[in-house]
């Protein structure tokens, strides 16, 4: 299906001058879903379908990703945490929200809890990124300038249009244990220089966002909200996989939260076992799988 025939889901909300694409579904307590590096709203389709009967589900595209416009500046941890709060303000949601952060967005979810404790009802980290001792080697401005140059060169060569959707499919296949058909919006989004630039900048700023979170942990306590660290497990017994699970378990202990496994699942837990993400959200507040069957 060609992209111009696809109806655009959701709507656009201007936050800090940037038109953000947001999809809101369901009713009940508020829950925000934020995907990992380079991901889009549609990566949460299966989770949102299961969660919407029990929660008001908000999923959005960070600047440059999905259908959102690009931002004037590279991302920072504080800016992404603040963006969640300002997006909820723009949508008229003033009450506390559970924030679900996958991979890189786990930094943003924890940052939101620490910077906006009165707005946070709980946190679920879905195979969240972990950096125990982040020490970026280059000044941020140097690395982001280099990344911007790389993105410009890729776009000038026409590589996003030629290879973007295929690259996205390869990443998806490598990050899942199941077989998942391509989403109709994949080609429309990942063939653009806008999305390519956003992906390159998120990757370039990753170590700085990790360092920001490490500093935040020293200065801003975690609020007394329920936390679940949901780690992907594909069933393998390799040293690297078992070490990753131990790091996830240690993160849960550091945050005073609960550790849980999502299995069998690759890094894209929301695609392989969306019900595990839904259970993690519902179990945060005691509305567990017995009280809230998923059909």
UniProtKB/TrEMBL annotation:
<dbReference type="InterPro" id="IPR029058">
    <property type="entry name" value="AB_hydrolase_fold"/>
</dbReference>
<dbReference type="InterPro" id="IPR000073">
    <property type="entry name" value="AB_hydrolase_1"/>
</dbReference>
<dbReference type="Pfam" id="PF00561">
    <property type="entry name" value="Abhydrolase_1"/>
</dbReference>
<protein>
    <submittedName>
        <fullName>Alpha/beta hydrolase</fullName>
    </submittedName>
</protein>
<dbReference type="InterPro" id="IPR050266">
    <property type="entry name" value="AB_hydrolase_sf"/>
</dbReference>
<dbReference type="GO" id="GO:0016787">
    <property type="term" value="F:hydrolase activity"/>
</dbReference>
<keyword id="KW-0378">Hydrolase</keyword>
<feature type="domain" description="AB hydrolase-1">
    <location>
        <begin position="29"/>
        <end position="134"/>
    </location>
</feature>
